[in-house]
Design brief:
Immunoglobulin-like; 3 domains; flat; mainly beta; five-stranded antiparallel beta sheet
Length: 367
């Protein structure tokens, strides 16, 4: 028996599965968990991967009602599938990147309490680096000496940006600055020696070890003898940013319209006095806005919660609307099935546009 016990524990140590018996007798066998997934290899798994394992019945059948499953310290037993032979759990939301831990507690028919645990790695999210457009203000006519050449790159925010003007074997590089989220601007005042016959304008974004390029659809011409045209306003292709050029050839970034939704009909903490209500807000023009409204009872109104049946958070509304050309949107929220004072409304609004998203929340109370 001593040899058998040593063999079992050596096997468990080799597979990094830790099993701890609360009760142990010389007549009992070690209780194993086999074919567990994800395994504790160095290979990371997707954030929505399922967690499972098979109970080895050599040490006695498992008492199903005794099984408890914990993921990163959170009890997920109620959302798991459990039998005498195996268990499985599919996360209701993405697992956090990096190291995650599973712990399973259970009893067998020999009335032994066991605990098994292991770690696994989850992939870290990879944010794509891309350029959606490159535009400039030299598309319709040649730019002469004294003009300002302006280029705008729209793409992934938070990158290092640069503009290159290629004319045959000549390359002129201009540093670009991010004037608003994902909008990069480069400018230069042209002199009497600046001459380009058919230049290609290329934008470059770099972040970490990734680099992407994008070219403007139209060439640019620099001709010192061309008429200097002062533009009153240069509009970028992004709906976020407008840059203004004044007679001194300096550029000023105008305020942008934020993507994050802003409620105009209510403020955080407002009280609702009607049966149902309408939420109004603003975001960037033509953005898609997903609105989720959940109701729950306040801690100070337990009796009302029992009466209404709303002890826990319950989804009241989930809908997606399109903001108009001015960025305005409106959503009608129905009254709860059982209306009572003290109900809390948790509102979450997420705006999406051009591959980007931003979220705001609002808390309201039924009066």
């Amino acid at each position: 028996m001593g040899l058998l016990k040593n063999t079992c524990f050596n096997l468990l140590a080799a597979t990094s599965i830790v099993l701890t018996p609360v009760l142990w007798s010389e007549a009992a066998f070690a209780q194993n968990l086999v074919n567990h997934s994800p395994s504790q290899t160095n290979e990371a798994v997707a954030p929505d991967t399922s967690i499972s394992g098979v109970f080895d019945s050599n040490g006695g059948s498992v008492e199903v009602n005794s099984v408890k499953i914990f993921v990163n310290g959170q009890d997920v037993t109620r959302n798991s599938t459990i039998t005498q032979n195996f268990f499985s759990y599919r996360p209701t939301q993405d697992l956090p990147p990096g190291e995650n831990r599973v712990r399973v507690e259970y009893k067998n028919t020999n009335n032994q309490q066991w605990t098994v645990g292991w770690n696994f790695q989850v992939q870290r999210p990879q944010v794509a680096l891309e350029i959606t457009s490159v535009t400039h203000n030299g598309t319709n006519t040649a730019l002469g000496a004294g003009s300002t050449f302006l280029t705008t790159i729209n793409g992934t925010p938070g990158a290092k940006a640069e503009v290159m003007v290629l004319d045959g074997a000549t390359v002129r590089k201009l540093p670009a600055q991010e004037v608003s989220r994902g909008v990069y601007v480069a400018s230069v005042s042209l002199g009497s020696r600046d001459r380009i016959n058919d230049g290609v304008v290329v934008g470059r974004l770099q972040r970490d070890d990734k680099t992407v390029y994008g070219a403007a659809s139209q060439a640019v011409v620099f001709n010192p003898s061309a008429t200097v045209t002062q533009l009153n306003q240069v509009q970028t292709t992004s709906t976020q940013t407008t840059t203004t050029q004044n007679p001194q050839n300096t550029l000023t970034a105008a305020p942008i319209i934020p993507l994050r939704p802003e409620f105009t009909s209510h403020q955080d903490g407002d009280q609702i006095t009607t049966r149902g209500f309408t939420l109004q807000g603003k975001t960037q023009p033509n953005a898609r806005v997903r609105v989720v409204v959940k109701q729950s009872a306040s801690n100070s109104n337990i009796l009302g919660a029992i009466a209404t049946g709303v002890l826990n958070s319950e989804e009241l509304l989930e809908t997606t609307v399109n903001a108009d050309s001015n960025g305005r949107f409106s959503v009608s929220v129905p009254q709860p099935r059982l209306l009572d004072s003290g109900i809390n409304y948790s509102v979450t609004a997420t705006a999406d546009k051009d591959g980007r998203s931003d979220t705001t929340t609002l808390s309201l109370t039924q009066r």
